[in-house]
Amino acid sequence: MRDLFDSTNLNGVKLKNRFVRSGTWEQMASADGRLTDRLLSVYENLAKGQVGLIITSYTFVTRDEQPNPGMLGIYDDRGHDDYRALTEMVHKHGSAIAMQLVYGGTQTFLPQSGQTIFGPSAVAEMATGVVAKEMEQAEIRELVKAFGDAAVRAKKAGFDGVQIHCAHGYFLGQWLNPHHNRRTDQYGGSIENRARIILETYEEVRSRCGEDYLIMLKINSADFVPGGATFDDCRYVCKELARRGIDAIEISGGIFAAEESQRWARPQVTTAGDEAYFAAYAAQVAEEIEVPVILVGGLKSLEVMERLLAETKIEYFSMARALMTEPGLIQRWMQGDRSKSKCISCNQCRHTEGNICILNRQA
Ligand SMILES: Cc1cc2nc3c(=O)[nH]c(=O)nc-3n(C[C@H](O)[C@H](O)[C@H](O)COP(=O)(O)O)c2cc1C
C-alpha cells in the first residue's frame, strides 16, 4: 500500500516523501530577478522541514517581461552561481528542487513601461485589461526557445528538474482559453491547435535537457470563467503530454478573473471537506494517463491526503500556503504531531515587502 512518506523516483530524482512545495512567488527577489539572502533562507527552511520536492516561485524566462515584482528570473547566465548555491544547499538537506518557468503575459499587475507583452490575440486580459501583442509565428518560436534556454540554465545550476507554468491564467494557459485565443492559424480554434504552443514548449525543453531530465507542467483543471479553458481542454493536454513523455503533471485551477472561491488559492478552507478542491479533476486525469499526477489546492490534513492516496491514483501532494505558515510542517508530521496545518486560508500572504504568512512573521 502506498504511503505519504514513501520514497519514490521521478525520472531519476529521488524524493524522500510525496510532499511537494508548490511554486510560490515570495516577492523577495531583487528587481532584476536575482536570489537574495532572505530567499535562500526561505528555501533552507523548507529543505530543513523535510519537503520532498521544492518547486521555486515562478521564474521569468525573458528579461523584458515579468508579471509581478520580486520574482526570480532565469533569462540570462548571470545568476548561475547563486542558483548553484541554492541547489547545493537544498541537496545538502536531502530535498530535491525544481525551477518553475513562466512567461506571464497580460495577466500582469506591474506598471507598464511600453514593453511588448505577447499573447495569442490582441484582446484585453479579463482582470487586468492589458492588451497583448498578437504573436507572429517567428515570435512564438523565439519564446518557445526562451523556455528551452531557461531550462538548460536551470539544469546547469543543479536544479533536479523544471516545471513549465501553464496554469492560473498566465501566458501558456491563455492559449487554451478562447477569450484570449481568437487565432485562425494552426495555433487557434480546435483544441489540437490551442494546445500546440504548450506541446511545443514541452518538446523544446525536453529536446534541450534530454530524456533523463525531470520535466513537469502545472495546468488548470479549468479556468472557471465563462468562455475559459475547460476540463476537457486540460484532459487533452495531459494526454498529449503523457504520450510525449512528460514526467509529472500538477493539477490546479482558476484564473485571476474568476471569483476568489474558484481560483487556485481559495479562502475559507476550514473543514476536511473544504480541502483538496481540485481532487476530483486530478483523480480523473490520474485514471487517464500513466504519468504521476500532483494535486494542489487547499491541502492541510494528513488524513485527507492519506485518503486520496488510498482511493485514487494521485501520486504527490503539493502545498503553498500551509508551508508558508509552517515550513517545518512535514517534519512536524514525521515527528508524530499529526494535527493539520495551522494555515487559516485568509489569503493575507501577499505583501510588497515579501510574501509571508501573518502567522509566521519570521519568514
Ligand atoms: C503568495 C502566493 C504565491 C503563489 N505563487 C505561485 C507561483 O509562483 N507559481 C504557481 O504556480 N502558483 C503560485 N501560487 C499558487 C500555489 O502554488 C497553489 O497552487 C495555491 O496557493 C493553492 O495551494 P494551497 O492551498 O496549498 O495554497 C501562489 C499562491 C500564493 C498564496
Report on the architecture of this protein.
With 363 residues, the protein is of the alpha/beta class. The protein has one domain: TIM Barrel. Helices cover 31% and strands 15% of the residues. It contains 11 helices and 13 strands. An 8-stranded parallel β-barrel has the order 3-4-6-9-10-11-12-13, surrounded by 6 helices. A two-stranded antiparallel sheet has the order 1-2. It has a two-stranded parallel sheet with strand order 7-8. A hairpin with a 2-residue loop joins strand 1 and strand 2 (13-15). Helix 1 runs parallel beside helix 2. The longest helix is centred in the middle third of the chain and has 20 residues, at 137-156. The two termini are 36 Å apart. The mean pLDDT is 96. The structure holds flavin mononucleotide.
**Ligands (ions, cofactors included):** flavin mononucleotide
Beta-strand fraction estimate: 15-25%
CATH topology type: TIM Barrel
Q: Structurally, how many domains make up the residues? A: 1
Task: Give the helix/strand class.
Answer: alpha/beta
Average pLDDT, all residues:
96
Helix fraction by DSSP (H/I, runs of at least 4): 25-40%
